[in-house]
Design goal:
The complex is a heterotrimer of chains A (298), B (446) and C (318). Chain A has 298 residues and is mostly helical. Chain A is built from 11 helices and 2 strands. In chain A, a hairpin with a 2-residue loop joins strand 1 and strand 2. In chain A, helix 1 packs across helix 9 and helix 5 packs across helix 6. The longest helix of chain A is centred in the first third of the chain and has 31 residues. Chain A is globular, with a radius of gyration of 19 Å. Chain B is of the alpha/beta class. Chain B has a 7-stranded mixed beta sheet. In chain B, strand 11 and strand 12 form a beta hairpin. In chain B, helix 4 runs parallel beside helix 5 and helix 14 packs across helix 15. The longest helix of chain B is centred in the C-terminal third of the chain and has 24 residues. Chain B is globular. Chain B starts with a helix and ends in a 10-residue tail after the last helix. Chain C has 318 residues and is mostly helical. Chain C has a two-stranded antiparallel sheet with strand order 1-2. In chain C, helix 6 packs antiparallel against helix 9. Chain C is globular. Classes of the chains: A mainly alpha (298), B alpha/beta (446), C mainly alpha (318). Chains B and C meet through helix 1, helix 2, strand 2, helix 4 and helix 5 of B and helix 2, helix 11, helix 12 and helix 13 of C.
C-alpha cells in the first residue's frame, strides 16, 4: 500500500515538472509546427537566470520566499528577451519551410545557446537552494516530502487550468485555436498571425524558463542540465499527441507514473521505460492519445 | 540589409560551392603540418572535457592544472625535484582538445595531435570509454600516451601496451579503501542500499564495493539497488524508494552535478538522518556544495588527493599556487591526477634525454624511461607497479565531512590513509579476482 | 551520355587514388570518416525522397558497427570485407524487421517514432554487458583478405576501402535514383495519395527504400568502426541521428554527388570549428548551419553547380 502511494506521489511530482516543460513544447508545435529542440537549453537558461537574479538581489539574510518571486521574474525576463529575439530574429526567416528544416534550425539554435551559456555563466555550478526550504516538510507514512515538491504540483495545475480557460473561454484563445487548426485560413480571415506566432513562442519560452527556475533550488546549475530533458519531453508530447495541451498533461502523467513505478519496482529498466511506453502508445494510437486534426489533401 | 543580400545570393549557389572550397582549404592550410619539430619546445597534447556534464568536476580542473603547471615549470621555481625549467630545459607547449565533442572526435583529435602537431606526448582523456578506445590507437600509432584520469581497471588487465601508461591508480582501490574504512572505523550497519548511475562506471563501482563487502564484512543485507540515468537531475522517486527501505547505509558512486542534485534533494527530506551515506569519490563537490553537504558523510576522492591529500612541501606548493591562479581549491582528483601525470612525464623525459644527449625523446625512449618509474607528486608517491610497469598505484584515503563554520568550508576529518600495496591488486592479478580471493597478497601497514 | 558518366566515375576513382597516396594520414582519416558517413546519409536521402525523415538512422549505423566488432569474435580473422558485409547485413535485417512498423507513419511522427525505436536500442546497448555496456567494445584493426597493413598503410587502406565503398554505393544509388523505382520514391514524397490512386505499390516502395537505407547505414557504421577501432552505445544516441539528418538537409535529396560534398563539407566544418574555436565551436557550427539552411533552402543539390548531376528537373513543390 505504502509502495503504491509512494509511486503515485513521486509520479505526480515528476509529471508536474514534466508538464510545465512539455506544454510549452506542444504549444509551440501546435501553433507554429516547430519542434523546438532548443527547449531544453531555454530551461537551463531559466535556471541560470534565477541564479543570477538571486545572487544579485538577495543577501544571506533575505527571506527565502523572496527567491520564489525572483524565479518568476527571472523566467519572465528570459521569455521577454529570448522569445521575441529568436522568433523575430531567427525563426521567421524559415517559415513556410518543411517541418524538418525548422527542427534543424532549432538544432542549430541549441548549439548556439549552449555555447553562449558557457560563455556567460562559465562551467562552475550555481546554487539557489534557499527556496527549497520555504515550506515545511510533509510526512506521509514513513516517507517525508519537502513542501516545495507540492508547489510544483500547484504550479502545474495553475498552468494547465490557466491554459484551458484561455483557450476555451477567451476570444484571444479562440483565435489561437483557430490558428492551431489552420494557420492559412486564419490568416486569410484577418487574424494577425505574426503576432500570434511571437506570442506563442514567447509563452513557450516562458514555460520552459519557468520550469528551469522552479527546478533551480533542487539542482546544481551547471552545463548540461537541460540535455536529457528534451528527449523525455518529446516522449511526453508524442504520447499525448503533438500540439494538444490536454495530451501533454496526460502524457506527463503516464510518463511520470511509469518512471516512478520503475524506480520503485524494477530500477534496472528505468532508462527503457519511457521509450517503451512511447513505442507502445504509438503502436495502438499512431498519432498519440489526443491527435491533432488533419485533412487529407489530394 | 544583410538578409536582403543573402537572399539575393541564395539563387547563386556558386557562392556556397566557393564557401565550401574556401572552408576546406582554410582548414587544410591553417592546420598544415607543423614544420620540422621546432627546437627547444616540448609539445604535450592534453585531452579533457571542456564542455558537457563532466567539465566542471573533472575536465576544467584537469586542463587548468595542465596550463598552470606548464607555466610554472617553464618559469622554474617548482619545489624539488621539479625545480629545473620546462622539461629538460625545453619549453612546454600544450595543445588542448575538448573531450566533450564525443568519442569519434576524440580519436580524430588524437590522430591530429600525433600526425599533424607531432606532439612529444599525449596526456588524457578522462572518460573510461575514451581511454579504452584511445589506447589501441596510441599503440598502433606508436605514440607515447599517459592516461591521466580514467578509472576502469580493464585497460591494462585486458591487454598489455608498449606506449600507453596510466599515471594514476585505477578504480578498484577506491571501493576497497572505502570498505576497509567502514570496518576500521567500526561503522555499524546490517542493511544497505545503493544508488549508482546506469553506466559502466557505476556498475563497476558497485561490483567492486559488493565484492569487497562480502570479503570484509559479510552477511550484510542489500535492500535496494537503484540505477538512475546518467544526468537524470530529478531524484524524487529514488529518494522515496531509499526512504522506504530505511537501510542503515547508503552507498553511491554518483559524482559531479548528479551527486549534488541528489544531496540537495535528499538532505531536506531527512534521508541522511536515517542512513549513513558512504560515497566512493565525492570530495570534489564539497567546495561547491558547502554547508548543504551534511556532516559525517564518509567519502573518498580517488586517492589521497584534494582535501584528503597529505601535507608535503610539494602538495602545499601545489595547493597554494592553484588557489592563487583559480580562486578555488583543487578539490578534484583530476587536478591531482593531471599533476602526477605531468610530473611523471617530466622525470621520464629528463631521464630519457640524459641518455640521448638532450634531444626531444622519441616515444620509444619515453616509454622505456617511464616503465616501472617511481616519482613524488602532490598526492604522494606514484609507482608504476602494475601492467608490466605501465599502470600506477598510489595511496588511498577516506574521511568524513565536517562543516568548518569559521572558514566557511567543508573539511574532511577522521582521515585514514591506506598504503598503495594494501588496496591495489598485485601485478598480474585481475582486480575483481583479487578482491574475491580475499585481497590475497595485500600488504597493509596496520 | 552513359560513356560520359562512366568517365566521370573513373575520374573520381583516380582522384581517390591520388588522394590516398598524396595526403598525410591525419587528412585521410577525416576523409575516410566523411565518406563512411556519406553512405549513411545516402541511405537517409533515399528515405527522405519518399517524404519522411528518419531521426533514427543511428540505430542501423551502430548495429552495423557492433556487428563489425563481432567479426573477429566469430571468425578467427578481423577481415574488413567480412566486417563490412556483416555490418551491412545487420543494418539491412534490422531495418527489414522494423520497416513494416515504422513506414506506416508520416512527417514528424515518422521522425519521432524512428527516434524512439533507436533510443530503445540505445537503452539495450547500455544494458548489454556482453557488448561492453556503456564502455563499448574495441574493434580490432582489420586485415584485407589476409593482408595486414602496417604504419601509414593502416590509414591508407582504410581510406581506399571507404573510397571504394563510396564509389560503389554512389554509382549504384545514382542508377537507382534514375530508375523507375527512384522516380517513384520522389513521386511519393511529392504526393503520396496521387501515387496511390495511380496504383503505385506505396508500401513496397517505402519498405525497399527503408531497407536500403538500413543496409547502407550498417555498411557505413561498420566502416567507421573499423576506422575508429572502438564502438560504444553513444553511436546509437539520437544526436548521432541528428548529425546524419543535418548532413542530409545540407545536401538535399536530388543529387548523389551533393551527398558526398555535404558529408565532406560537414566534416571540414567540424574540424575547422573545433580547431579555430576550441571553446566556442558549438557557436560557430550553429551559426554556419543556420546560414547554410538559409542560403540553400533545398540543400546543396539544388544549387546550380550540382544541377547537372540531378536526376531530373523538378517542378515547384506544392
Amino acid at each position: 500500500m505504502e509502495q503504491v502511494i509512494a509511486i503515485l506521489i513521486d509520479g505526480v511530482i515528476y509529471a508536474s515538472w514534466l508538464f510545465v516543460v512539455a506544454v510549452g513544447l506542444t504549444l509551440i508545435f501546435g501553433v507554429m509546427r516547430i519542434v523546438n529542440i532548443a527547449h531544453g537549453a531555454i530551461y537551463a537558461i531559466g535556471a541560470y537566470a534565477t541564479a543570477t537574479l538571486v545572487g544579485l538581489g538577495l543577501g544571506d539574510d533575505a527571506p527565502p520566499w523572496l527567491s520564489l518571486v525572483l524565479m518568476v521574474i527571472a523566467a519572465a525576463s528570459v521569455a521577454a528577451i529570448i522569445g521575441p529575439f529568436l522568433e523575430r530574429g531567427v525563426l521567421r526567416w524559415f517559415y513556410g519551410r518543411d517541418e524538418m528544416v525548422l527542427l534543424l534550425v532549432t538544432y542549430a539554435i541549441l548549439y548556439i545557446l549552449d555555447s553562449l551559456m558557457l560563455t556567460v555563466w562559465g562551467s562552475s555550478p550555481y546554487y539557489v537552494t534557499a527556496a527549497y526550504g520555504v515550506f515545511d516538510s510533509v510526512n506521509i507514512g514513513s516517507l517525508s516530502y519537502v513542501g516545495y515538491d507540492f508547489l510544483l504540483i500547484a504550479v502545474a495545475l495553475a498552468v494547465g487550468v490557466g491554459l484551458h480557460v484561455y483557450l476555451a473561454y477567451t476570444s484571444r484563445g479562440k483565435l489561437l485555436t483557430a490558428v492551431i487548426h489552420s494557420a492559412e485560413i486564419s490568416s486569410a480571415m484577418g487574424i494577425r498571425i505574426n503576432r500570434i506566432y511571437m506570442g506563442t513562442f514567447t509563452l513557450g519560452v516562458f514555460l520552459a524558463a519557468l520550469a528551469g527556475a522552479l527546478t533551480s533550488p533542487m539542482i546544481s546549475i551547471q552545463p548540461g542540465v537541460g540535455t536529457n530533458l528534451i528527449i523525455i519531453s518529446f516522449a511526453v508530447i508524442i504520447i499525448g499527441g503533438l500540439g494538444s495541451v490536454y495530451g501533454a498533461a496526460v502524457g506527463a502523467l503516464i510518463v511520470g507514473i511509469c518512471r516512478s513505478a520503475a524506480v520503485h519496482i524494477a530500477p534496472e529498466i528505468e532508462l527503457f521505460v519511457i521509450y517503451m511506453v512511447m513505442v507502445a502508445v504509438l503502436l495502438v494510437r499512431p498519432e498519440g492519445l489526443f491527435p491533432p486534426m488533419r485533412v487529407r489533401q489530394i | 540589409m544583410i538578409v536582403e543580400v543573402l537572399r539575393r545570393l541564395r539563387s547563386q549557389g556558386a557562392m556556397l560551392a566557393v564557401g565550401a572550397v574556401a572552408a576546406l582549404t582554410w582548414t587544410a592550410s591553417s592546420t598544415a603540418p607543423a614544420m620540422a619539430q621546432s627546437d627547444g619546445v616540448f609539445k604535450i597534447g592534453v585531452i579533457g572535457f571542456l564542455s558537457g556534464p563532466a567539465a566542471e568536476s573533472f575536465g576544467i580542473p584537469s586542463v587548468n592544472t595542465a596550463k598552470m603547471l606548464a607555466e610554472k615549470l617553464n618559469a622554474g621555481g617548482v619545489p624539488a625535484p621539479y625545480a629545473t625549467k620546462g622539461i629538460g630545459g625545453k619549453k612546454i607547449e600544450l595543445v588542448v582538445i575538448d573531450e566533450g565533442a564525443g568519442g569519434t572526435k576524440v580519436i580524430e583529435g588524437f590522430r591530429n595531435l600525433v600526425e599533424r602537431d607531432h606532439v612529444d606526448a599525449v596526456v588524457g582523456p578522462i572518460a573510461s570509454g575514451n581511454c579504452l578506445a584511445l589506447a589501441p590507437i596510441a599503440e598502433e600509432l606508436k605514440q607515447f600516451t599517459i592516461l591521466s584520469d580514467c578509472g576502469t581497471p580493464q585497460v591494462f588487465e585486458a591487454r598489455s601496451y608498449d606506449y600507453v601508461f596510466r599515471a594514476g591508480a585505477h578504480g578498484t582501490m577506491d571501493n576497497v579503501s572505502l570498505v576497509l574504512y567502514l570496518r576500521d572505523k567500526g561503522v555499524k550497519f546490517d542493511t544497505f542500499s545503493t544508488i549508482n548511475q546506469k553506466y559502466a562506471y557505476g556498475q563497476d563501482a558497485l561490483a567492486d564495493f559488493r565484492a569487497s563487502l562480502d570479503v570484509v564484512m559479510p552477511g550484510r543485507t542489500l535492500k535496494s539497488e537503484l540505477w538512475p540515468t546518467f544526468g537524470a537531475g530529478q531524484y524524487g522517486a529514488e529518494i522515496s524508494a531509499l526512504q522506504k527501505d530505511r537501510a542503515d547505509l547508503i552507498y553511491s558512486s554518483l559524482w559531479g552535478g548528479d551527486l549534488q542534485a541528489f544531496v540537495l534533494q535528499a538532505a531536506p527530506r531527512g534521508l541522511f538522518k536515517e542512513s549513513q551515506l558512504a560515497l566512493m569519490a565525492a570530495a570534489h563537490v564539497l567546495p561547491a556544495l558547502g554547508n548543504k553537504m551534511p556532516d559525517g558523510v564518509i567519502m573518498g576522492e580517488r586517492g589521497a588527493t584534494g582535501l584528503l591529500a597529505r601535507p608535503s612541501p610539494l602538495n602545499d606548493w601545489f595547493w597554494k599556487t592553484y588557489v592563487e591562479a583559480f580562486k578555488q581549491i583543487p578539490a578534484s582528483s583530476s587536478a591531482y591526477r593531471m599533476a602526477q601525470s605531468l610530473f611523471g612525464l617530466k622525470i621520464a623525459a629528463e631521464k630519457a634525454m640524459k641518455l640521448n644527449g638532450g634531444k626531444n625523446p622519441s616515444s620509444q625512449e619515453l616509454a622505456a624511461a617511464m616503465t616501472g618509474l617511481e616519482w613524488d607528486a602532490p598526492a604522494g608517491r606514484i609507482r608504476m607497479a602494475l601492467g608490466k610497469g605501465h599502470q600506477a598505484i598510489q595511496d588511498a584515503a577516506v574521511g568524513r565531512t565536517k562543516w568548518d563554520a569559521q572558514h566557511k568550508m567543508v573539511t574532511l576529518i577522521d582521515i585514514k590513509y591506506y598504503d598503495a600495496d594494501c588496496v591495489n591488486p598485485p601485478e598480474g592479478v585481475k582486480s575483481i579476482d583479487w578482491i574475491k580471493s580475499g585481497f590475497k597478497g595485500a600488504k597493509c601497514s596496520q | 551520355m552513359m560513356r560520359a558518366t562512366i568517365l566521370k566515375w573513373l575520374a573520381a576513382a583516380m582522384l581517390a587514388i591520388v588522394a590516398g597516396f598524396g595526403l598525410p594520414g591525419w587528412m585521410l582519416l577525416p576523409l575516410s570518416l566523411a565518406l563512411a558517413n556519406a553512405l549513411v546519409v545516402l541511405g537517409l536521402v533515399t528515405i527522405i525522397r519518399t517524404g519522411g525523415v528518419s531521426f533514427g538512422q543511428a540505430l542501423y549505423f551502430a548495429a552495423g558497427a557492433y556487428a563489425a566488432g563481432q567479426v573477429s569474435r566469430l571468425f578467427n580473422s578481423a577481415d574488413a570485407f567480412a566486417a563490412i558485409a556483416l555490418g551491412g547485413a545487420t543494418g539491412l535485417v534490422i531495418a527489414a524487421i522494423l520497416a513494416p512498423l515504422l513506414i506506416r507513419f508520416r512527417g514528424i511522427f515518422f521522425a519521432m517514432l524512428t527516434l524512439a525505436v533507436s533510443m530503445v536500442g540505445y537503452g539495450f546497448l547500455l544494458n548489454a554487458g556482453w557488448l561492453g555496456g556503456s564502455d563499448g567494445m574495441s574493434v580490432p584493426a582489420p586485415t584485407y583478405l589476409g593482408y595486414a597493413p602496417q604504419g601509414v598503410w593502416v590509414t591508407r587502406s582504410q581510406f581506399f576501402l571507404c573510397a571504394a565503398l563510396a564509389l560503389a554505393a554512389g554509382f549504384g544509388m545514382m542508377a537507382l535514383f534514375r530508375s523507375s523505382f527512384g522516380l517513384a520514391t520522389l513521386a511519393i514524397g511529392q504526393n503520396e495519395i496521387r501515387v496511390e490512386y495511380l496504383g503505385g505499390p506505396i508500401g513496397t516502395i517505402m519498405w525497399i527504400a527503408f531497407v536500403i537505407a538500413g543496409g547502407l547505414a550498417g555498411v557505413g557504421g561498420a566502416a567507421v568502426a573499423l576506422i575508429i577501432g572502438h564502438v560504444e552505445p553513444e553511436w546509437m544516441f539520437w544526436t548521432r541521428s541528428g548529425e546524419f539528418v543535418l548532413t542530409a538537409i545540407v545536401s538535399g535529396s536530388t543529387s548523389v554527388v551533393a551527398v558526398f560534398v555535404a558529408a565532406l563539407f560537414m566534416e571540414a566544418l567540424h574540424m575547422f570549428a573545433t580547431d579555430m574555436f576550441p571553446n566556442m565551436w558549438r557557436l560557430a557550427l550553429g551559426l554556419i548551419l543556420l546560414l547554410i539552411i538559409f542560403v540553400a533552402p533545398d540543400g546543396l543539390g539544388s544549387i546550380r553547380a550540382f544541377r547537372r548531376f540531378t536526376t531530373k528537373r523538378l517542378g515547384p513543390s506544392p
